[in-house]
Write a structure and sequence with these properties.
mainly alpha, 0% strand, elongated
């Protein structure tokens, strides 16, 4: 692994990316549910959490904004 993985800067950048991904997934799911007339909250939470975890795992490959 590269030296700049799992540093404080990496954790901050990966956390911000994951949080944005969770929010984007939630907004998309709420929008879809609202159009269809029903928001499935457990499914929304599950999909959003999974998206955040996948974002963190993807960040292990590297983040261009972390150059330490």
């Amino acid at each position: 692994m590269e030296k700049h993985i799992f540093t404080k800067a990496w954790l901050k950048a990966a956390g911000i990316r994951a949080l944005r991904t969770v929010a984007q997934t939630a907004v998309a799911s709420i929008g879809t549910g609202a159009v269809m007339g029903d928001v499935n909250w457990p499914a929304l939470g599950s999909a959003s959490l999974l998206a955040g975890i996948l974002s963190l795992l993807t960040s292990v490959a590297g983040l261009p904004e972390v150059t330490e």
